[in-house]
Design a protein that fits this description.
The strands form four sheets. Strands 5, 6, 9, 10, 11 and 15 form a six-stranded antiparallel β-sheet that branches. Strands 1, 2, 3, 4 and 14 form a five-stranded mixed β-sheet that branches. The protein is globular. The protein has helices at about 125-135, 145, 225-230, and strands at about 15-20, 35, 70-85, 90-100, 105-110, 120, 155-160, 160-165, 170, 185-190, 195-205, 205-210, 215, 215-220, 240-245. It is mainly beta. The protein has three helices and 15 strands. The two termini are about 35 Å apart. β10 (about 185-190) and β11 form a beta hairpin. It has one domain (about 15-45, about 65-245).
Length: about 250
């Protein structure tokens, strides 16, 4: 495992994130008070495998290999927070501790979101996201189109907007995408001029994650490794803005 810069890194480098937030009554997603970035790691190359060759022989081989995606960055970690009654300066009149919050984590490449305009991400925006990745929507196994090809997820609210199971594209971010935990849902800010893609991870307290440790969320976001450089060394990175809404 390699320790990388605490910037948002490219491809499937997994970063532990702790979020501390203070949502308001009738809230919409807000920026976290704190994000603590942990270690990043990626699947490394392995040594070569040798096979003896003997003149005159014909040998059948069955070869299995894996490759690191060039299209996704992964995040996982824990979530904590409070519910507060506060003024616009952040002075709390009253605070309710919430050691096991539920809710959602939102990630987007855009700085301005109108949370009242959220809709399920449509097929046009999915294609635009694959264009951003330079991924073939059909033939690239790890394209957005192929990765978020389910519609199963737990119902949730963003502010007063209700998103129900079966209504949006989603995936379970825990191995094959067909699980029943760590759902991630595709939304967009349909603002009339540009449909802004938003990736939503549903918080689930203390679930067994990809490495069998307990986490509150696991999520992935698109990152074009063909541009940034697959190893994330000397290349460009993609900035994502995180928002949280706790229940």
């Amino acid at each position: 495992m390699s320790l990388k810069s605490p910037r948002i890194r490219d491809i499937l480098v997994l970063i532990a994130i702790t979020l501390a937030v203070a949502p308001m009554v009738l809230s919409e997603p807000i920026s976290p008070d704190l994000i603590t970035v942990g270690k990043s790691s990626r699947l490394g190359s392995v040594g070569s495998t040798s096979i003896y060759a003997l003149a005159g022989n014909v040998t059948e081989l069955s070869i299995s290999a894996g490759s690191v995606t060039k299209f996704w960055q992964g995040y996982f970690g824990s979530v904590s927070g409070t519910i507060v009654l506060a003024d616009s300066l952040g002075n709390n009149l009253y605070e309710w501790g919430n050691p096991t919050p539920t809710g959602e984590i939102y990630a987007t490449r855009f700085t301005v979101i109108n949370w009242s305009n959220l809709e399920c991400m449509n097929s046009s925006v999915v294609r635009e996201e694959d264009t951003f990745l330079t991924a073939d929507p059909v033939n690239s196994l790890d394209s957005v189109n192929q990765t978020f090809n389910q519609t199963n997820f737990t119902d949730f609210y963003t502010g007063t907007l209700n998103f129900t199971n079966g209504s949006c594209l989603a995936s379970s971010i825990n191995s094959t995408g067909n699980g029943t935990i760590f759902y991630e849902v595709l939304l967009m800010d349909a603002n009339g001029t540009q449909n802004v893609p938003i990736y939503v991870s549903l918080i689930e307290q203390d679930q067994a994650g990809f490495n069998q440790s307990l986490y509150d969320f696991q999520m992935i976001v698109p990152e074009n490794g063909n541009v940034s450089g697959e190893q994330g060394v000397g290349g460009n990175t993609t900035t994502y803005y995180f928002y949280v809404e706790l229940n």
